[in-house]
Amino acid sequence: MSALRFPLPEASTRLKEWLKYNDVVLGSQSLGRRKVLDMSGSRYIATMDPDIDEKAFRKDSPEETCVAVACGKADVLERQLKGLDVVLLCGDQVAVCEDELREKPEGSEEARRFIKDYAQGKGVITWTAIVVVDCLNGTRAVGCHKAITWFNPIREHFIDAIVADPHSLVYRCAGSFCIDDVMGPFVRKIEGGSDSVMGLPLGMLEELLLGKIRPFL
């Protein structure tokens, strides 16, 4: 069972036009970010894997942590793309529930614990950081966006099935939850947008690209 109960927003006409005339490299292996771009009709020319140790970037707050990780990814890839006429797009996301910072689960037991909290109605906050870099001149812009997701009750046997699948997206997502895979049908409410929960808030992306990197006249 899988569904996206809260459809992704369409990218604005201005953002689509901007992406048509500017080459964007997605510095991320996130399936969610690629899905947001693909489903919203947004163009990018390539993906790259920054391959960094994300745990080395811990800061005092969730917002600062995800910004630091996203900037760390951008630092690595910008060195490889420096001087090219491309815009680099990197991102990171952390989840917070009950004041606990939650990254990707380390195993099935941690994933189970996280999901049980959501099944009991506890909201999960996602902080998503986006960094865009004009590799031609080094101009950089950074933004951070907050969203909150609540789930309906999830029965124990569904949780068992979710964590039993080693290929489930819950093992690849911060906080061990997703809204477009097996947990999708259980989503009750989202504040902040499904695009933000999936790792790429399109409104903020448009502000960064068109407002701070390469204004689109």
UniProtKB/TrEMBL annotation:
Protein name: Maf protein, putative
Keywords: Hydrolase
Gene Ontology terms, MF aspect: nucleoside triphosphate diphosphatase activity
Lineage: Eukaryota, Sar, Alveolata, Perkinsozoa, Perkinsea
Listed Gene3D superfamilies: 3.90.950.10
Keyword DNA damage: no
Keyword tRNA processing attributed: no
